[in-house]
Design brief:
This protein is α/β, with parallel strands linked by helices and about 350 residues long. About 45% of the residues lie in helices and about 15% in strands. Helix 2 crosses helix 5 and helix 5 packs antiparallel against helix 8. The chain starts with 12 loop residues before the first strand and ends in a 7-residue tail after the last helix.
């Protein structure tokens, strides 16, 4: 038997309140050929984003902090094109973000898991609909992706992460131990005793979306440090999270130096988890920081990291040679080889 009622969250469903429905936006075929309605819509959004310089503030407890000593965010393919400006992070900002996460944790960790999942599924609907063009446009301009690469990353994979994570959470919560006659056994899951630090890379908007929201889905609260090169799309994701219904303080965004953020956050006694994607060298440094501060922590932090080491290729004898050659070239050189 289950400790909770278990609504069914299939990966292809969205939730409005408690009602699961299909999402016609994501089921529709997207046609980005020149002149198509999708191409015209996205091109117009690219022009709109490119025409301005966005303020990219830290977002702590749902509040955008004033910009101080702003740092330019430029397009990787046009270094003279300033797209936005963020404030370099300080110890004070990190402390405020941690305090906000810890304050929000008390209530958020008690929210039933299906309500947390419903928020994430609403976020998936927003990514596939209202925010789709803006998320793709900011990814293309800020992270130098093509129509195709932005669509499969910022829109499709982000929505997939949100929906599949809700589906996987369901599987975790519904797995219960057997109860023999005369006994009642049940298993529940609680968030970590502290905050989770999410440090995410520039090459996939979807990774930033996943590593910031996945801990929140499981009842944790988060301090999120995206790559400075993904600051534009990260700000759009924060708008998605707020509109979807994540309460203030559940996900807090800080921009700037990863070293400043991790040094400060990983010294805190309530540091409870790290979700990281990036280089092997940086992850080793973060693991060493955790080990060096182990005696200061209230509990052992959970550390999850994905690092480099890709491009092994196995070609089956049945492969079409022309298709294989195209795939090899794309794998080696697309996005300068900096994508999975």
């Amino acid at each position: 038997m289950s400790i909770h009622p278990v609504p069914t969250f299939a990966p292809g469903a969205v939730v409005s309140g408690r009602i699961a429905t299909t999402d016609p936006v994501n089921e529709a075929v997207r046609d980005y050929r020149p002149g198509s309605p999708e191409a015209r819509s996205l091109s117009a959004e690219i022009s709109r984003v490119a025409a301005g310089v966005r303020a990219l503030p830290h977002v702590v407890a749902g509040v955008e902090l004033p910009l101080t000593a702003p740092v330019d965010v430029t397009a990787p393919h046009d270094h003279a094109h300033v797209l936005g400006r963020y404030s370099e992070v300080t110890d004070e900002v990190v402390d405020r973000a941690i305090a906000a996460a810890l304050e929000a944790r008390a209530d958020w960790s008690r929210v039933p898991w299906w309500d947390r999942a419903a928020v994430l599924l609403r976020a998936a609907e927003l990514v596939g609909g209202k925010y789709r063009d803006e998320l793709n446009a900011t990814t293309m301009l800020g992270q130098s992706k093509t129509f195709h690469q932005a669509e499969i990353d910022a829109a499709c994979e982000t929505a997939d992460f949100f929906r599949y994570n809700a589906h996987f959470a369901q599987q975790i919560y519904e797995a219960q131990p057997p109860s023999p006659a005369g006994e009642f056994n049940m298993l529940d899951h609680k968030g970590l005793e502290g905050f989770v630090l999410s440090v995410t890379p520039f090459n996939f908007t979807a990774i930033g979306a996943n590593l910031s929201s996945m801990p929140a889905l499981m009842g944790n609260t988060v301090v999120w440090k995206p790559s400075e090169k993904a600051a534009l799309s990260a700000q759009v994701l924060m708008a998605v999270f707020a509109e979807a219904g994540f309460p203030p303080g559940v996900i807090n965004l800080v921009h700037g130096s990863g070293a400043v953020v991790t040094d400060r956050a990983m010294q805190h006694e309530r540091f409870a988890g790290l979700a990281f994607t990036g280089s092997t060298a940086v992850f080793r440094q973060l693991w060493q920081k955790a080990a060096a501060n182990l005696d200061a922590y209230r509990s052992y932090p959970r550390i999850v990291g994905e690092t480099g080491g890709k491009n092994a290729v196995v070609a089956h004898a049945s492969a079409d040679p022309d298709a294989l050659l195209v795939a090899l070239v794309r794998g080696a050189f697309e996005f300068q080889g900096q994508k999975c």
